[in-house]
Design goal:
Length: about 120
Amino acid sequence: MDRLGPGSDVYSLGATLYALLTGKAPFPEREVADVLEKVRNGDFPRPRQIKPAVPPALEAVCLKAMALKLEERYATPLELAADIEHWLADEPVSAHREPWSVRSGRWPRPPRHAPEHG
C-alpha cells in the first residue's frame, strides 16, 4: 500500500498548523531517525501544553490532522481546510465538541435598543 497520499498530506498540514499555533516544530529533533520514531509513535506535546492560549477547538483540529491512525485524520486536505474556515467564521468544528456555554454564545441575541434621549 502506498504511504503517500491525502492522509500524509493532511498530516503534513497538521504539523504546519502545529508550528503556526505554537511557534515550535512538533518534532524538534535533528536526526531523521529520531523524528521518524516520534512520528510513528505520535510522540509530541499537545499545542496547548506548549502555548495554553491556543483555542481548544483549533488544537482539536490540529490533533485530528496529526492523528496517528489514518482513519482518525481528516480524509482530505479540503476537509481540514473546511474545519479551519469554520473556526475562522466562529462556527463549530467537526473535531471538537464545544461546551454548552460556548455553543449558546453563538445564538442570536435580541437587538439592543438605542438609549432614549430626552
